[in-house]
């Protein structure tokens, strides 16, 4: 049985279904199009299906599991914590696939956090579940390289593809292993990241270096429609930018020049070159921004 | 006492494969002054039974407590074992024939591939055919050998180098079904075609015999991959004509101290050195380095992996080092042709060493497989 949160699990569901490992699919809070699509696919493939749109609806989960009697339950981005009444279905029967390395990246959005922290590598962690988020015994962390210029979107797509193979490997392991090696999480390395808020997605020009700003912009693209900031007194979101290793003598956060990119001074004597940004007028390229803000662009070009 | 585990396959036409792999490893460790290391073995049959492969690896790790496991398996089986090695924090050294090409080249820090590069050799053999002036070619293989993606590699390379694949012929796998008769029509329709040939083991012998009998004196241009040029099989194959060449992974004729030591050591044991004893002889160096790094880095796999990637050593076939993107060993390949010995059987003649193997390997791993898949799980030549 797979409990999932939506689209992120689709590749995995397809592969596990193809390999005839799935007996039922449960989906947590998600949009109706996705729920309908999954329900249809489940019916067509003779799989059990149930939607759990609210925390309240979780009360029905144990009965549903008891009726289906799966050997194991895989969780992929399932949004709700499974209560003890559900977990008591069986010891080490619930396996979560966390899209970040554990115990270092507990929390709801590890993909954002690893990018923001400029990690070179992330992982999909398979772990047994307990009554706390991301804290059960680890079976393995399957590492994945983070590529230069990876955005949240690009990395999510790669993790989504890789997740299917990791889940299949886990299913094979459960089928063939006489026991599943696992170990408790090292609490001295553990960190729980809360769901990002504005303070986490906000560019502070005075305190952040250029590479940190680029990492934050990539980490916010596309789920937050860019990194939040104030530029020349206006609230905007920066969607795509690159590092410009060019010295300057301006205050951090000042627009230095606008050509094909909006070049902004950073604290560490470097600049970032903004390619795409979002303002109240809409999403636009740097060139469009220059046309829209002649008063911002002209004093610099004159 | 350090323990190294090895998963041994069996093969109908390479009946000594398990012994060769074991002896190569044992002798390699002894040569390196580490006879104290205990080798534990597990049988994985043809390598196609997932459960048998998994259970055997599990036994070596959890019951025998092997620090490292060496296995003659393919990428698909390595993928199956990946979580086990991740979970137990140990290194797996895959002895890879290189016959198949994965859709996703491996990136797991726990798994290192030591390869004979049959697909890469296939690609370079096709390139040689183009260099020799052949514009058209036919791929000739059998039901068994044709199931691995070296077939894609050989065809793709010929096409990428400007040639046209005019026909394919895949023959049966039983002796009564094995025929080269259809080649007559193909060669009538497309004369002057090179035969890009993928066979291994007994099939090489059957192929040569039929080429000789069906196309007597025609000296058809035949291009072969490393396993098609495996010397112990060639020694029993009828010489088919004077236009047979290809890419070899190793030969007894490579002149070096390292090769002489390897050949002498295995021969003194009353065995014939071959690709399998070579591969595991070489793996002894990799395993020892991995053991040393395991101690040094206190089992930290990322650190072990990073340092193991920098290992270079001179083996009987030349200098070996790792491609860091895929954790796969890169080794020299050799242009070779077939000559006749005094008994009318085949002998390998080396024509030159291929330089820039790493560059060709990178091209191979970058190419898109265009949805081509292989369902052959067993270790290559293990049928």
From TrEMBL, chain B:
The keyword Transcription does not apply. Pfam families: Peripla_BP_6 (PF13458). Keywords: Signal. The keyword Chaperone does not apply. Residues 4-338 form the Leucine-binding protein domain. Belongs to the leucine-binding protein family. This is ABC transporter substrate-binding protein. It comes from Flavobacterium frigoritolerans.
């Amino acid at each position: 049985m797979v409990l999932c949160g939506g689209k992120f699990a689709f590749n995995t569901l397809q592969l596990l279904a193809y390999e005839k490992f799935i007996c039922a699919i449960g989906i947590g809070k998600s949009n109706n199009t996705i729920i309908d699509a999954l329900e249809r696919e489940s019916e067509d493939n003779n799989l059990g299906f149930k939607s759990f749109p609210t925390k309240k609806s979780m009360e029905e989960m144990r009965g549903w599991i008891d009726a289906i009697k799966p050997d194991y339950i895989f969780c992929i981005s399932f949004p709700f914590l499974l209560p003890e009444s559900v977990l008591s279905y069986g010891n080490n029967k619930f396996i979560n696939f966390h899209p970040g390395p554990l115990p270092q990246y507990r929390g709801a959005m590890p993909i954002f956090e690893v990018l923001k922290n400029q990690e070179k590598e992330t992982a999909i962690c398979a772990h047994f579940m307990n009554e706390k988020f991301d804290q059960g015994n680890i079976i393995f962390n399957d590492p994945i390289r983070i590529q230069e210029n990876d955005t949240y979107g690009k990395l999510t797509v790669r993790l989504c593809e890789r997740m299917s193979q990791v889940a299949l490997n886990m299913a094979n392991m459960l089928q063939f292993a006489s026991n599943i090696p696992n170990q408790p999480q090292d609490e001295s390395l553990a960190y729980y990241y809360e769901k990002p808020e504005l303070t986490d997605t906000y560019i502070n020009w005075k305190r952040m270096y250029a590479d940190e700003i680029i990492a934050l912009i990539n980490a916010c693209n596309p789920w937050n429609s860019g990194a939040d900031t104030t530029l020349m007194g206006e609230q905007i979101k920066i969607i795509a930018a690159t590092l410009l290793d060019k010295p300057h003598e301006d205050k951090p956060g000042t627009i230095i020049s606008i050509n094909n990119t909006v070049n902004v001074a950073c604290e560490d004597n470097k600049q970032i070159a903004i390619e795409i940004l979002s303002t109240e007028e809409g999403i636009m390229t740097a060139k469009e921004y220059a046309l829209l803000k002649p008063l911002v662009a002209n004093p610099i070009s004159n | 006492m350090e323990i190294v585990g090895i998963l041994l396959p069996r093969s109908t036409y390479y009946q000594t494969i398990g012994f060769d792999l074991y002896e190569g490893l044992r002798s390699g460790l002894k040569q390196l002054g580490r006879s104290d290391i205990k080798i534990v073995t597990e049988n994985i049959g043809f390598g196609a039974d997932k459960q048998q492969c998994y259970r055997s690896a599990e036994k070596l790790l959890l019951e025998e407590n092997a620090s490292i496991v060496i296995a003659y398996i393919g990428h698909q089986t390595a993928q199956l074992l990946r979580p086990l090695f991740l979970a137990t924090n140990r290194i797996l050294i895959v002895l890879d024939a290189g016959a198949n090409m994965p859709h996703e080249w491996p990136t797991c820090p726990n798994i290192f591939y030591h390869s004979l590069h049959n697909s890469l050799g296939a690609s370079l053999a096709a390139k040689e055919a183009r260099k020799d002036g052949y514009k058209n070619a036919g791929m000739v293989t059998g039901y068994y050998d044709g199931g691995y993606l070296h077939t894609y590699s050989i065809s793709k390379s010929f096409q990428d180098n400007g040639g046209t694949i005019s026909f394919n012929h895949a023959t049966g796998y039983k002796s009564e079904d094995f025929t080269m008769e259809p080649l007559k029509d193909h060669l009538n329709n497309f004369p002057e075609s090179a035969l890009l040939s993928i066979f291994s083991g007994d099939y090489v012998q059957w192929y040569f015999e039929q080429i000789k009998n069906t196309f007597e004196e025609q000296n058809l241009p035949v291009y072969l991959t490393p396993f098609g040029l495996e010397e112990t099989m060639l020694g029993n194959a009828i010489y088919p004509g004077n236009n047979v060449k290809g890419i070899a992974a190793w030969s007894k004729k490579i002149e070096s101290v390292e090769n002489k030591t390897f050949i002498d050591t295995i021969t003194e044991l009353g065995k014939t050195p071959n690709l399998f004893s070579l591969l595991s002889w070489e793996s002894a160096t990799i395993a020892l380095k991995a053991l040393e790094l395991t101690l040094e880095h206190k089992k930290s796999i990322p650190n072990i992996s990073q340092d193991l990637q920098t290992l270079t050593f001179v083996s009987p076939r030349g200098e070996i080092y790792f491609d860091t993107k895929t954790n796969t060993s890169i080794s020299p390949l050799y242009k070779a042709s077939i000559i006749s010995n005094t008994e009318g059987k085949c002998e390998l003649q080396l024509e030159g060493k291929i330089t820039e193997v790493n560059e060709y390997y990178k091209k191979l791993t970058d190419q898109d497989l265009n949805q081509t898949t292989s369902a052959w799980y067993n270790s290559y030549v293990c049928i």
